[in-house]
Amino acid sequence: MRFIVEESLYLSNRTLSLDDRTHEYLLSVSVDESVLLRELREQTAAENQFSVMQISPEQGQFMALLVKLTGARRALEIGTFTGYSSICIANALPDDGELVCCDNSDEWTAMARQYWERAGLQDKIKFYLQPAEVTLQQLLDDSLAGSFDFIFVDADKQNYPLYYEQSLKLLRKGGLLAVDNTLWSGSVADPENMEPGTRAIRRFNEMVKNDNRVTKSLVPIGDGLTLVVKGFE
Ligand code: CA
Question: d(Cα 176, Cα 35) in Å, to the nearest integer?
């Protein structure tokens, strides 16, 4: 009996890896996905061969919670794809809030723009169809440094270090940066895996680990979500 108690205590310290049944249960008691978001998720899965890039409903809901928790009014998303995360973020902002979206795929974001209209979010979202580094520089040139409350990065992994530095400039002190795919399906932990994407994420994770300007946590939700709070200095 004693052994069982100790074992369960040990297990409770670790993040549970979810089997299908437990995952279904988690969704059933905690996820409240709108009809529109569900439709967007299903349409993306049916029509886009890269639909795996779409965030999960539980991650979308978690990010909406983070947006509310930070009391964000101005948010930025780097990498919009077909729009799921942008709708979660924009909906969580107050009525006078604003979300700036960056993506360079006209094709993928066509679906996003359609759903923004349907969700009545077209006036809340400002979309830039060009490489994100151009938009980020433009925002800095427009004196918007230190003005964003919440930033979500989910774009080309090679540029993560660049997006990270630019985002830290754009964030206000105490603002929250969320960076997606930082566990990269677990491949980052496989020393044999030297794929460019894997190496880029490893480099990024080391960079965040050694950055004393921020408070951070890598949350094992979805494909790994690194949360970084910009320090007050
Ligand atoms: Ca992602």
Answer: 28
